[in-house]
Amino acid sequence: MNPASPDLVLRTLEARLPAEGLFRGKTWRAGPEPFALTSAQVAELRRIGPALVRFLEVAEDFYQSRDPALAFFRSVLDRGKPEGLLRLHDAEAVRGQLPMVLRPDLLWTGDGFRITEIDGVPGGIGMIDFLNVVYGELGFEVLRGRRLFGEVFVERDLAVVFSREAADYRPETEWMLRHASGGSGERTLLESDLTAAEAGALAGREVYRFFELWDEELGPGARRLLEMAGEGHLILTGPPKAFFEEKLLLALYRDPFLHPRWQEALGAAHAATLDRLIPFGWVLDPEPLPWHAVYPGLENREWNELKGYSREQRRLVIKVSGFSQNAWGSRGVHVGHDLSKAEWARCLDDALASFPVNPHILQDFAASAPVPNRYFSEGGRVLEEPGVVRLSPYYLVEEGNAGLQGVLAVVCPPDKKKIHGMTEATILPCREE
């Protein structure tokens, strides 16, 4: 089957898009064909999923280790967490559990992919199903798994619970389940006002949690779900392990003391993949260093020395780690060379001051490489201009294996250093050239 013409692509997308859209109150640009990846890039994406699964397994081993030399690993990841959640981390029922859906966000740089975060409760699972289905039916060879996410959810009879913050993702989830079930059958989709009794009725089920563990709005129903997961009365995915959702893990991977231990536990192939993927980073811990020590790669003894850096030296990024309402999207991300020296100093001070509750990390800035951006204008014409792209590969994790389900490309204007699903972003599925 030959790929469809741009006119047919546009008409089909407009006809197939649900009346309520896929996300509440959000729009984006569509394109005439999937975003093209080379065979080498696709092969790397297929390596990244299994490497990240092993990375999370090793992170849990380090977190649970009784080795006194690794005590700091758990200590830094536990900062700012409520006692109830910390007890869940040690619950036997959740030991070894992994997220069912894993989505890293990757920047396309001139030197390969660089990871910005690992999301174990991602949105976009309905959108990647929708785009893969529609572009696939139009004759394009999209990257996808053997089954759609919706088919997996229906087969496993997953219940889905949304927080108020995540309710924007409900339309895509409804489309995903409706398409997979043929529009028939009741699906369990529960909003943020879930009661404890409704939560109790989910005993024995598997529940996809569209809520973050830090959500301040968590009501009695969500709290009961967490308790039931710890008691082994249901399976919550992603599992209630806040340390899986911390960007701190990326900086701790580069710690000179830990890095050889990561490499040994991961194995040579996974370690090589993660060495290419994870930018150098540091935990912004205000504790003074011994007089004879420096921060590796920076060669400074004090964080305050960074305040005097020139704009070129400030090709660094400050990010809040994870257990915060500012830790998703582009919130809580500060690009050093985009800030004045005074703004940079203030961000650094704020990050260090928040360490006891909301640790931050400092990372090398990964510059995005230019890519072609082909999209439909408001009048339906195909326009092309340079862009920068964030790739979000979606993996289905089953029995420790991570199968590539699809790849979402978010292509933005080239002046955007924080790439996310903004109105002027082109959102596409991906194909192999």
Give the mean pLDDT: 92
**Strand elements, count:** 15
- What is the count of DSSP helices, taking H or I runs of 4+ residues? 13
End-to-end Cα distance: 16 Å
Supply the helix-strand structural class: alpha/beta
Low-confidence stretches: none
Helix content: 25-40%
Secondary-structure element string: HEHHHEEHHEHEHEHEHHHEEEHEEEEE
Q: How many structural domains in the coordinates?
A: 2
Backbone CA Rg: 22 Å
The general outline is globular
Strand % is 15-25%
* Largest sheet, strands/sense/barrel: 7 strands, mixed
Oligomer: single chain
Structure description:
The protein is an alpha/beta fold. The chain has two domains: 306 residues, no CATH class; 76 residues, no CATH class. Helix content is 32%, strand content 21%. The protein has 13 helices and 15 strands. Strands 1, 2, 3, 12, 13, 14 and 15 form a seven-stranded mixed β-sheet that branches. A four-stranded parallel β-sheet has the order 5-4-6-7, with helices on one face. The protein has a four-stranded antiparallel β-sheet with strand order 8-11-9-10. Helix 7 links the parallel strand 4 and strand 5. Helix 11 packs across helix 12.
Please tag this protein with its features:
4-stranded parallel β-sheet, 433 residues, alpha/beta, 21% strand, 2 domains, globular, 7-stranded mixed β-sheet
Q: Would you kindly provide a brief summary of this structure?
A:
This protein is an alpha/beta fold and 433 residues long.
